[in-house]
Design a protein that fits this description.
Blueprint (H helix, E strand, L loop, with lengths): L2 E12 L2 E9 L16 E4 L5 H13 L9 E8 L2 E9 L10 E5 L7 E5 L1 E8 H7 L5 H11 L8
Parallel strand pairs: 1-5
Antiparallel strand pairs: 1-2, 1-3, 2-8, 4-5, 6-7
């Protein structure tokens, strides 16, 4: 059975074009990776947990701030690897300054020493074209789903 994840894809309009809010994973494995490393704010949840509530919880863990108020619409679902990710979206010009939760891991590997790292080390707003390059490959369909939703009328859905 695949691992279930849920996330929030925020978008905003800049110069009549949509941009999306993405986060970069923290820790030593991702420190020098940029292209194909970013993600929507998301995390795992159980089968019995509501995916929107899980997405909002994970958003707070990864950014240090509550999800913006507003209406969230179901964007869709993608499967990649052993994951099934459900994404929700809303329009909001969210501040990219974040304060992520931390995790501990042995680092350097096999050293016996534990170090703390942020779950997310930075966030940013990206055009849809740039977001397609920045996102981990399995999440790029979310950009196309969002583009279909918001660019039909070139206006806000909310």
């Amino acid at each position: 059975m695949p691992k279930l994840s849920a996330g929030i894809l925020l978008y905003r309009w800049t110069k009549n074009k949509p941009e999306v809010f993405l986060v970069h994973p923290g820790g030593p494995f991702w420190a020098k990776k940029d292209t194909g490393a970013w993600s929507i704010p998301k995390g795992e949840h159980t089968e019995s947990e509501d995916s929107l509530l899980a997405a909002k919880r994970e958003f707070k863990e990864e950014t240090g701030r509550n999800c913006p108020e507003g209406e969230y619409l179901l964007l869709g679902e993608v499967k990649y690897g052993n994951k099934k990710v459900t994404a929700w979206f809303t329009e909001n010009d969210f501040d990219k300054d974040i304060r992520s939760n931390f995790f501990e891991m042995e680092w350097p590997l096999k050293s016996g020493e534990k170090q703390r790292f942020p779950e997310v080390d930075r966030a940013g707003w990206f055009s849809l074209d740039v977001a397609r390059r920045k996102l981990v490959k399995g999440q790029t369909p979310f950009v196309d789903m969002l583009a279909e939703q918001v660019t039909q009328n070139q206006t806000s859905l909310f």
